[in-house]
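Tokens for Mediator of RNA polymerase II transcription subunit 7. Go.
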Amino acid sequence: MDPPPVLSSAFPLPPMSYIELFSNDNISQNNKILQPPPPIDGPYDLFGLFVNGIDHSEPIIRPLAAQQIQRVYTRPDDYKGELKKLCFAILTNYLDLLQIVSRSTLTPSTDSGNITLREQKLNEIELLFINIHHLINELRPHQARETLRVILEEQKQQREKTSEKLYSFLNRIVDVLNSAVYSLNDLVPKTSN
């Protein structure tokens, strides 16, 4: 006969000292409950990288000019059209890069003296990708609002369905009670005065 299987968990059990802190008495008295550490202000080390901290005075999505990056799209309000243009520009630059690589990798650029034509095309493609990435990041707040709107609409529909079910159950209960009252009235003998 096989031994019973040993149950195991992917995570270790929590330390008993933490479990004991969250007893019903401690929670009701709000004693000895560990508070989360305060947010870190200033520079800190994150996964081996040095981070200067979050500057709340700056916008979350910084403009390309503030990052010393050239903006190649013309109309920032037409996201769909500009993304299509940038994708088409990446495709044409990629085809140009293939043509350059098929001929020679060391062709000097006419614009810049010390970089090759291949490196220039790679830099142009990188700039286009950065601009696409920036446009997509500018759409994130709109996406978040739309997602929240859809979630709230679904919750509203769910609540309406629940209330409709509740009213239908209430109507059924009232009908059952009325029929019970009528049947009781029929069973009660009538007394004549």
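The radius of gyration is 34 Å.
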